[in-house]
Structure formats: C-alpha cells, structure tokens
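# nightly structure sweep
# worker-07 picked up a monomer target from the shared queue
# config: single-sequence mode, recycle default, output format = structure tokens
# input follows
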Amino acid sequence: MKPAEYPPPRQPGVALHAILFLSLAALSTFAAWRAFESAVGLMLTLFSLLAGAAFILLPILAYRLSALMRANYTLDRDTLSLTWGLRIERIPVSDVEWVRPIADLTSPLRLPWFCLPGAVLGVRRHADLGPVEFMAANRKKILLVATARRVFAISPNDPAAFVQDFQRAIEMGSLAPAVAQSLYPTFVIAHAWESALARYLWLAGLFLNVGLLIWVSLLIPTLPGVSLGFQPYGGPLEAVAGSRLILLPILSVFLSAIGWIAGLIFYRREGQRTLAFILWASSALTALLFLLAVMFIVTTPI
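# output follows
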C-alpha cells in the first residue's frame, strides 16, 4: 500500500484567515496612524492600545494560516501521520484501536472553545474517551482516531475514503514495526534553543527590539517633531508629531515575530535548518537597522 494523503478541506479556512489577517493589519495600521497624528494624551493611549491589540493577533493568524495550508493526514501500512503546522503526531497503525465519525458517539463531544473554519484546534475532555485532541478544519467532517494514549479528532476532506483505506491497511498488516512520535511546537522551540547560534540570534533580536521600543517610548515625550523622509530635492520632509516615531519599533517587532515563526517551521527539517538561521539572522539585522534608523532620525536637524 503506497502512502496516501488525505488533506483537510482548506479553502474556507484559508479564505477566512486571510480576510481576518488583512482586516486586522488594516485596523492596526489605521490605529497606529491615528496614534501618530494624536497629541500626547488619552487619544494617543487608546489608539496605541488598539493598534497593539490588533498587531499581537497578526502572527497568530499568520501561523494558523500557514499551518492550515501545510496540514495533512498521511496513511500507509505502518504509520498514520497527522501534521498541523509545528504539531506532528506519528501513530503506528497497529496502535489505532478504532476510527469512527464523531456523530457515532452516544454522548456528545464538545468542540474547543474558539473554533473557526480551518482551525478546530485544542484539547477537550470527554466523559468516556478522556482527552481528545482536535487537529481539524471542518467540524462537519470530523473523524475520531482512538489510541491507547489519546483520541485524535481529524477532518479529512473525504472521510469515507479515509475510513475505507484505513480498514484496508489494517487487513494488509504492517510490514515493519513503526515508532510512535509526538512533536509539539514547544518541542521545536526547546530543540532549537539547544543550538548556541539560535540562542544568540533570538536573544539579539529580542534585546534589540525591546531596547528600541523602550528608547522610542522615552524619546517621544521629548520630541516636538521628527522628519520621516526626504524631499525629492534632498531636504527633509516637513516635521510631523514625534509620536509617529513609534511606527519603527512596531514594524521591527512585527517583522521579527514573522521571521521567528517562519524560522521554526524550517527548523523542523534538518535539511532546511540553514534557512531557519538565515531568517533569524535577518530578523536580528532588521531590528538593528531600525535602531540605526531611529538614531539617524533623531540626530538629523529638521
């Protein structure tokens, strides 16, 4: 039996997450821009909080979107592999006790607290089954895969074909004993942290971004105005409110967060770890360039 893939239904979730990401990005940009135009006071605080709240959700949505696009369930005679972003579960076929639709349960199984199309994720406890881990995209196509350790809720695009092929794999028998494996995002982070180079790059990026944010926060009340560009003939643009300088650390933190998450995705595979280090080094370098940009702006006469 050749390995067969049963991807979850992606299109509705991808569309929704992309819309949410773009909407929050627009909201964060709008709120940040209004904060730049506001004088120091209540409105500046409110718009800054709104921009920060929307901004914090962007890396989460970006990861969920990337995880959905890469999500897959793979089955062969020996192993059932469940992949969802940085979460990977490899289950020997012989360890699977049964597979059935969620509708067959005598007592209902509640879904995780916050579910969106394309992201039915989390762990819920069932009175009969114990902990159930959801790695699904569509609540209407959920199949339960039971092992002695845990029950998994998945949503292949064609549940009937998955069940049929799983029964065939059981009947054919395993060719070689497979090893169970569970990988969590925290495991990838801990594994990468063992690398001295990764630790150095992470800490360098963190200290540069935190230092830049603190420095700019202390500078803003003392700046009557700053120039954020140059005229076509070479002179500086007209001065704007000093509060607009906060745009630079915000952009630096956002780019660093995206680079850190993307690096973790590449770091999972040994052959792609060079790309992970390049991304983390680029994030630290970008933060340094933003810091130098702030230094240049505040020292350039208006």
